[in-house]
Structure to design on (426 residues):
DNA sequence: TCTGGGGTCCTAGGACCC
DNA sequence: TCTGGGGTCCTAGGACCC
């Protein structure tokens, strides 16, 4: 150790109530009102402003259960608008990259940033500068936690969320125990419902206790991931920042229906359009898939009537990203699992065994493959230019009665000129 | 009436082999 | 009746994350 001034330092930058903040960007009138954003199909509450949290509206709560509070308190409700959130997210991440290229975009609203190149003394001020810059350039408020491991930076972030400054650094604090003691075990990154139940049963209630628990015991009774969490609480980095994006291994498209579906034709339509969607996605990442899984299910929440859920996986002889072939096989699978007389609530498909489309398989390349590739390319570029599903397959349906509810959409699309919001000067 | 969607990784257990 | 030991590979399901 040559110097204690330049220890390893990781910042976790987390956008505050991200989806709500995005909606507020284009709608100044709701900046001081309680706001919630709903999940797909307007099912659950997935983002809440502080005002909404204060009203006791819980994360993940079904919308209909919170409706009374919402109406009574004039809570502003929005359907989710992922193309908008994705766009704002990219702007935030671009801003963060200016501070260090060693960045891991962890989710749509979170990133780990390596700040080891700054001295221990200045790192908190750097955090403040990052926060101010993001706010100024994108309008999105963030919370920033800085520490020597990813797990500790999550802890720091957890604390930062409750502080006005929004920035907390645990770097170079000799004794973290008084801080860790106040962090409940279920609030630790990597400790979910099952694990916290297990830990509590064994007398571990907070982060300090988990930090002091025996590593061999954790590894033996649970697994290596759980022991890594404990190590990281001790300040030993076990989880690296993943700067280069690894190609994904699967691609899933699934939706709940806007209304229950009984007709096989409508199930086929939905599965077809999910396939088109997924196939386009993997083509845009130059990937091919080895197999497709199709699944359908009835609602698990209604105990009247019997619950039915089934899936079927079909392998492709040669890895593919051909929409037509993917749809064809999905419909074969669907046929095998479809049962008459059920009210279906959800369907979906998963493309798995994804790999690079350029690598391998040259053995089976033919002029037919070339033609298909060209066809897919022109479909993608047309849909890109004129909007998704300009070119589709007949089996995807026209009316789409099954499609999801989005009753409260703000209809802001930063990629579409005509739905840009009009902002009046005053 | 109304309960999201999209990922990753790990483990246990079965099939199969020598 | 007694019924080895060790290895690989695959899959389903569980747990976790946001």
């Amino acid at each position: 150790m040559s110097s204690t001034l330049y220890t390893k330092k990781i910042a976790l930058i987390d956008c505050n109530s991200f989806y709500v903040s995005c909606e507020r960007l284009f709608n100044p009138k709701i900046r001081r009102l309680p706001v919630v954003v709903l999940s797909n199909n307007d099912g659950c509450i997935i983002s809440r402003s502080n005002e909404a949290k204060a009203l006791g509206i819980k994360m993940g709560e079904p919308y209909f259960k919170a409706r009374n509070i919402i109406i009574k308190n004039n809570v502003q409700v929005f359907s989710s608008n992922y193309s908008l959130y994705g766009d704002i997210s990219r702007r935030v991440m671009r801003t963060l990259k200016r501070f260090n290229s060693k960045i891991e975009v962890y989710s749509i609203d979170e990133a780990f940033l390596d700040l080891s190149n700054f001295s221990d003394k200045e790192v908190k001020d750097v955090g403040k500068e990052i926060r101010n810059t993001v706010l100024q350039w994108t309008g999105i408020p963030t919370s920033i936690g800085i520490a020597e491991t990813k797990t500790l930076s999550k802890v720091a972030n957890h604390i930062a969320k409750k502080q006005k400054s929004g920035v907390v650094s645990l770097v170079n604090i000799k004794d973290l125990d008084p801080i860790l003691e106040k962090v409940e075990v279920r609030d630790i990154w990597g400790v979910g419902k099952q694990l916290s139940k297990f830990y509590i049963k064994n007398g571990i209630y907070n982060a300090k206790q988990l930090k002091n628990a025996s590593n061999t015991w954790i590894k033996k009774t649970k697994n290596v991931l759980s022991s890594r969490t404990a190590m990281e609480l001790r300040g030993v980095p076990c989880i690296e920042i993943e700067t280069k994006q690894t190609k994904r291994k699967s691609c899933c498209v699934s939706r709940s229906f806007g209304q229950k579906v009984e007709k096989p034709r409508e199930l086929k339509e939905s599965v077809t359009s999910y396939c088109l969607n997924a196939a386009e996605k993997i083509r845009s990442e130059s990937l091919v898939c080895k197999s497709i899984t199709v699944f359908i299910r009835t609602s698990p929440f209604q105990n009247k009537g019997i619950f039915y859920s089934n899936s079927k996986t079909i392998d492709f002889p040669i890895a593919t990203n051909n929409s037509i072939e993917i749809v064809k096989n999905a419909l074969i699978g669907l046929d095998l699992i479809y049962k008459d007389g059920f009210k279906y609530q959800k369907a979906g498909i998963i493309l798995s065994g994804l790999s690079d489309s350029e690598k391998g398989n040259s053995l089976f390349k033919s002029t037919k493959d070339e033609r298909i590739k060209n066809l897919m390319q022109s479909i993608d570029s047309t849909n890109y230019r004129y909007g998704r599903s300009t070119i589709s397959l007949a089996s995807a349906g026209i009316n789409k009665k099954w499609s999801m509810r989005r009753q409260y959409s703000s209809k802001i699309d930063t990629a579409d000129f005509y739905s840009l919001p009009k902002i009046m000067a005053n």
Q: What stands out?
A: The CA atoms of residues 305 and 342 of chain A lie 8 Å apart. The radius of gyration of chain A is 24 Å.
